[in-house]
Structures
1.
Amino acid sequence: MSKKTFPIHEVFERLDPVIEKLEAPVVDFIATQSGDPYKILIATILSARTTDQVTTKAVQKLFPQAPDMESLSKLTVEKIEELIYPVGFYRQKAKQLHKLPQVLQEKFNGVIPDEIDDLIQLPGVGRKTANLVRATAFHKPAICVDVHVHRICNRWGYIKTKNPLETEMKLRKILPEEYWLKINSYLVTLGQTICRPQRPHCDRCPINDLCRKILTK
Ligand code: SF4
């Protein structure tokens, strides 16, 4: 199978019914439940290097006390730490969330932007988070590449890249735009359940016969 003929449409067609039955990533869940860019932004920041289970518990504690940017601005760093513990890097994230309302006000008049170059100016927001927020909160074309997307696209043999940024740039060139929004949630879900980093379950993967199984890290 050459790279040019990788059957990307068939891959997504086969993944559609499978992904529907598996548990969606927490950020997608929040997006479908609330559609609120504030909640999506906060959940995305908290979810970095954190399991969905821990992120879910953290937002369940944080959102009742800080349902919007204004209420978040009234919480101390210590209080935010207490509410989001034990997400990964919770001290650092608490500081970033504490700064967020002020930076947002100063730079964007309090309105969460939808452009990547604007979003990455917010505390705690890197390219991955910015792409995910743009796609899930604003339904704008964006490809959010995290470790799962990077690993699985390379395993498929669809691309050959060294890091997530290279993967994002390559996918922008070759991935049909109709899949930009879904690739992250599909491959996060697939990556957490079937195409796991170590010992992927190829035997029960719906695209077993289409994948080149290039099992690098
Ligand atoms: S066939 Fe194996 S390596 Fe390929 S996507 Fe499925 S689980 Fe991953």
2.
Amino acid sequence: MNEHKTQPTEAMFSAIAARYDRCNHLFSLGIDRIWRKRLAQAIALTADESALDICCGTGDMAFALLKYSPVRQVVGIDCSERMIQLAQEKRMLKTPRRWMKDKELRLRVDDAAALRFEDTSFDAATCAFGLRNIPDRAAVFDQMIRALNPGGRIGICEFSLPRRPLLRNVYWAYVSQVMPFLGRVVVGNAEPLRYLARSIHHWHTHVRLEEELAAAGFIEIRPTPLTGGIATLTTAQKPQ
Ligand SMILES: C[S@@+](CC[C@H](N)C(=O)[O-])C[C@H]1O[C@@H](n2cnc3c(N)ncnc32)[C@H](O)[C@@H]1O
């Protein structure tokens, strides 16, 4: 793995890993679970397919794929060793669940921009709330398209800002003011929430995801706003 490149991100996410899930569900009022379910349903994996979940963090997107589809195998990768450890602990807890039966979840440390998988290894690839943190997205898309079978699907879920001005203003006040305040009160540190607000703003103002996916060779690129545009689910396909 290219430790030099992922080191700052790895350090930041490892530092917040233990509180990550709690903050996620608390600050999104639990809606993050619904967004991952929507992504899993949009990808519509069948029983003979396998999927790669990049930036898997503590594993919630990988678990959503296993829970909401009959998929055979999911592989989750993340550059943070601590996140992967937590995902492994969660896997132990979830193994008895009915929806985990006869399915395989593999988890490993890897860099999404330099994946250590053979070409054409997966039928689908997902990324939930991870791309915002990676400056070299072109490298990530090259890796995703390389690792997919012809016709393979991708699904990306990212935060966005609502189009409607009133909702956007209210939501932006929540993200940029209320969340850092709650971060200080609830977890004793406002900085990760300030980072979240900065990264959402940067994503909204600078990143043209659909154009980047088209430049990487993906087709059938379809964005769908979720919860009034607070998040956007984008699906696309590798040509046959
Ligand atoms: C906001 S979390 C999202 C976690 C999870 N997908 C979810 O839905 O909750 C972003 C994750 O991306 C990981 N990450 C950031 N840059 C990465 C890279 N270059 N390669 C792999 N993982 C990366 C971080 O370690 C972190 O766990």
